Here is the input.
Amino acid sequence: MKKYFSTIMFLVVSFIIILGLTYYSVSSSGSSFRTSSETASSTAVVLNTYTINTVATHSTPTSCWTTISGSVYDVTSWISKHPGGADAIISLCGKDGTAAFTQVHGGQPRPANELAGFKIGTLSK
Ligand code: HEM
Here is the structure.
């Protein structure tokens, strides 16, 4: 009788442990799913799509946006830091700067790296 009792207790405890583990894995996979969808939606907030008309409304040194190869950049803070002078950047404000940028900096890693840090979105077609 004592032998049966311990066998039954063993089965009951195992069953509870299995139930607990199943619940834990289901609930934790659920929360990791939520986390990845939150990450995806916050990326969508950062990278907006802008028309060239919107870019054109940021055409001054106090708010200077430009578009280069289909991406939109807010380069306002770069105006005073550009090693090639402020005027080179001011000339891009509110406009497509693809030709000006690639003519001078095409294939150079440093300007491309710097530019990537100013990206705010993509240009709508
Ligand atoms: C937003 C666009 C631009 C970015 C992010 C940018 C970035 C840079 C960077 C990082 C350098 C230093 C390169 C190095 O020392 O290796 C540089 C230098 C220079 N940039 Fe730009 N640039 C931009 C647009 C332009 C434009 C449109 C022009 C010309 C119209 C221009 C003309 C120059 C010149 C002449 C230098 C050399 C300065 C010197 O070494 O004395 N840049 N630029």
Q: What stands out?
A: The chain has two domains: 2-45, 49-123. The chain has a mean pLDDT of 80. Residues 49-123 form a domain with the Flavocytochrome B2; Chain A, domain 1 fold (CATH 3.10.120.10).
